[in-house]
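Forwarding the complex inputs:
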Amino acid sequence: AQTVTQSQPEMSVQEAETVTLSCTYDTSESNYYLFWYKQPPSRQMILVIRQEAYKQQNATENRFSVNFQKAAKSFSLKISDSQLGDTAMYFCAFMLHTGNQFYFGTGTSLTVIP
Amino acid sequence: NAGVTQTPKFQVLKTGQSMTLQCAQDMNHEYMSWYRQDPGMGLRLIHYSVGAGITDQGEVPNGYNVSRSTTEDFPLRLLSAAPSQTSVYFCASSYSSGGRQYGYTFGSGTRLTVV
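Prediction (whole assembly, two chains):
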């Protein structure tokens, strides 16, 4: 079975600063995908970034980047130049290459302070 | 392009009542899933489908039923509502291309309260 752990229930960061959200996972599979989703107060789930496990290069999307450590089964999200609109719940998620199941962590609530 | 459409957005049920949460996607995605979100527990998979006519159970399937007669639609049925089913429900769809998976697109959710 696959598990995803987010050990930081709540975090805060000053506007314009950088923050890193942690995620670890457990799997015996070698071919999988990792994701970060953002859920603002509107409740909508929004895909932030995607990482393919067979790629060593860390994914980046504008101010969002990941630190993917496959051997350590770690997948952290770095948000640079934090903005008020980044205030949201962030979920780490794991998907097997078969695509039929998606496993979520329990989330990290991020507050950006003006 | 509407993406994933869920209806209704809010619903209050009495214990023992049944209802169907509707989900439709217009992206021709082969994978569809239903999740429930409860405080402190993230999103948990209820049922999923890898194509029309094919469904399977997820982590928390008891009390729920699904069917997938078309690629577009994936309704979730609550057979006899219980207060433990009070939650926010999300429908999501995904696709693969060239052997790669591209993550799920989510609907806007349904907040269900069972009294």
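Chain B has a mean pLDDT of 94.
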